[in-house]
Amino acid sequence: MLRRATAAALVVLVPLAGGAFASAQAPRSAAVHQLQGKKSKPKPVAITLDGAGANSIDPFFESVFYTYHQANPKVTVNYDPAGSSVGVTDIQERTVDFGDSEIPMAAKDLAEAKGTVLQVPVDLGGVAISYNIPGVATGLKLDGPTLAAIFDGSITNWDDPALATETGLHNLPNLKIVPVHRADTSGPGWDLDDYLIETAPKWVDSIGATKPSKAWPITFIGVGEQLNSGVATYISQTPGAIGYVEYGYALKANFTNAAVLNSEGIYQVPSQATIAQAGKTATKLSATNFSIINQPGYGVYPLANFSWTLLYQKQANTAKGEALQALFNYVVTTGQSEAAALGYAPLPANVVALAQSTLKQLETAKGKPLP
């Protein structure tokens, strides 16, 4: 059982055939003969898979788990979208069957696990810079230095001349800017921090670091909210707000999103197409070479990322291991057809191959390949 309330409970089946015995009317000797001539088959069993982790992937997981259930019917999958840090901690403590994190587990995290952890790329998403400016339905363009100035408190009002110069919009209102960041550790925060470190020297001065952090580095400016859902709710309810949120949540909320300057000098808004272009740059993706922030290439959105499912290589329960392997093989193949409508992009072919080869490494408790 999960320690927190689950966001979704979906039923997915492990197909097991049921056997039939001789009629009660048959003589005892005939019944014995039939039983000796046929192998008894196991009865159907229920399997529950508990997972926890990244909030950003929840809309995709909810949809794809449901569709998988429709095609299969008998394993229950519970997923708690409590955040990437929870997914990592829960898999380390082995209180869940799978975790999920936008940032793969680092060596120090893996060392605290109770065995070898496999990390499987399962979705491709993006981080939207969403805003709520009355009367400004489109057209906001932001580069790294301007975004940094908003989030470090250097620019505090929407009618600041620096914003008019950067965006080309001269009708921005006299309205206080309310930057919204994640109060919990997060992958989207890591992604934006990484982008700002690369593109805005003054940001590095402000935070005193050259490596991105899952914990937002400037918490005394603006407002902190829990999870993508909390940030999205605050933006929708607060005129003047601007924040970073998983594109899937921004799409669902019908947010207006800024065009962000990429490494080619082009302003790009997040979309299935621009996120997919970013994913194509991941030609040598691995759990230690995972960032696709601000990659070069035509039509690339600079704030894109993969999400990683976390699984113990040795599965104490073989039936659960087989169920996990089947489920996530579906997620990274057929399930990708549901990505675009939800604000994600289908995994590139090379990433699908990486995911499948990783899933093949799952083993029984004795270190044997799964049947």
Can you describe this structure?
- This protein is α/β, with parallel strands linked by helices and 371 residues long.
- Helices cover 33% and strands 20% of the residues.
- The protein folds into two domains: 8-124 and 307-364, Periplasmic binding protein-like II (D-Maltodextrin-Binding Protein, domain 2); 127-304, D-Maltodextrin-Binding Protein, domain 2 (3-Layer(aba) Sandwich).
- It is built from 13 helices and 15 strands.
- Strands 1, 2, 3, 4, 5, 7, 8, 9, 10 and 13 form a ten-stranded mixed sheet that branches.
- Helix 5 (144-151) packs across helix 7.
Summarize the structure.
Helix content is 33%, strand content 20%.
Tell me the distance between the termini: 26 Å
Overall average pLDDT: 89
Helix vs. strand class: alpha/beta
Gyration radius from CA atoms, angstroms: 24 Å
* CATH architecture heading of the largest domain: 3-Layer(aba) Sandwich
Overall spatial form = elongated
Comma- or semicolon-separated keywords:
371 residues, alpha/beta, D-Maltodextrin-Binding Protein, domain 2, 2 domains, ten-stranded mixed sheet, three-stranded mixed sheet, 33% helix, elongated, disordered N terminus
